[in-house]
């Protein structure tokens, strides 16, 4: 009797078919995975937005701003300090001054609005991880997560989002314009664990309506979602995945400082690290994240 089985040719055909199916399905599965990351990221920002409004209700309508009165963007802070004066370097006499960071502003929601550190991590932001107190060294006995003032010793590795710069002339309050963008995925022109930033010189905003995909316009998008856009949190707590970075009030670019003192600016100027950096006006969205190395140098 003849034994039944695959011939070599039939086996090769089966392998070829499997390889072809894998080649077709893998990109689709990868796409679904990225869309899931995008959805989760948007959910995170929506929760953060609601927590910000709760926080503002308890703190004279001010959205989270770490440090003392007139504090500056000049962190990092002493995340495991025993009090706010030591954490930010605040004047003990009048509670003024001090330095703070973007992540320490976000961390106020962990301390006072019951938001978990996991809510600040976007799965599409490679290199950013959920902060756990257990991973830190030299923590005093009995020290808990609610006692901290930031996401550990390297907070930029544990927070995926940029925030409307709250320091300077224009205070960020819950009574500002509802359509003002206040948080989003990381700024694409600032170095971060997500990867190398895009060159600002390559970015050129296109005009509305958007017809097709303009590569130079996509250079202005966050890199957490393959450059296709960014999840943006607006002051009224709604979140939108925007295909262009110029999506705030009057089509203002959320990642750059406006060049116009009166209206929005779809282009703006490349962001810089500086203690006196601030939005151009009350309608100017300026979303930034912290540098890994502090100092007043211009960004790449």
UniProtKB/TrEMBL annotation:
Question: Transmembrane residues, as ranges?
Answer: 6-29
Give the record's keywords alphabetically: Membrane, Transmembrane, Transmembrane helix
Which InterPro entries does the entry mention?
N_methyl_site, Pilin-like
NCBIfam families assigned: IV_pilin_GFxxxE (TIGR02532)
PANTHER family documented for this protein: GENERAL SECRETION PATHWAY PROTEIN G (PTHR30093), TYPE II SECRETION SYSTEM PROTEIN H (PTHR30093:SF2)
* Name this protein carries in UniProt: Type II secretion system protein
